[in-house]
Amino acid sequence: MRSNTKRAKQKRETRKRILEAAASLFDEKGFFETSPTDIAKEAGVAYGSVYAHFETKGEILTVLHLENQEDKFKRISALKREGRRPIEQLIYFIEAIWAEDTGEKALGNLIAFTSYIWVHGNTSNNLAPEHVYKRFIDIAFALVEEAKRDGDLSPDTDTEKSVDIAVANYLDCIRQAWYDQEKKDEIREKMLEKMIHIFRVDPELLEKYKS
Hints:
This protein folds into two domains: 2-54, Arc Repressor Mutant, subunit A, CATH 1.10.10.60; 64-210. It is 78% helix and 0% strand. The protein contains twelve helices and no strands.
């Protein structure tokens, strides 16, 4: 029993070292310029250990991306406890994720790549948008349903279709922002305008919750 516990601890520590090494290298060199060999060397582990914990380099970046979103998910829970309406939580969530995705080099590489995959229809690996943004999609879906019940969104809103279109719009805007960072703020405003139309949000209500 003690031996199994020790192995499990070593496994967790190795996984953590791989993630920390990858995060450092992705930030320094970029996702595409970093090889699994680089990650293994930086982490001080055998090359095979990287693939023992992660199927692909893309999966490593996906895990890092999801872990970096944890504080946003916690903030959503806090807003809910404060009694904030679902539409306000949704607005915060979209803007918070945008700020994170356009503020980190490694995450920018991830989003640019997922956007490429989305456009080209190649969703056969762990960088597929529905994998990377699964929790994002689940939370957005739940908030839209709650906003419909509260009367902030039209009860006729097709939640599944709206969320799918919103994610596609978001990824497209992220891709644009990373190819033209000088226009990042302008692209962000256009992204939010599209979200208003997609979810059919009352602009006055949106401004009220953003202020």
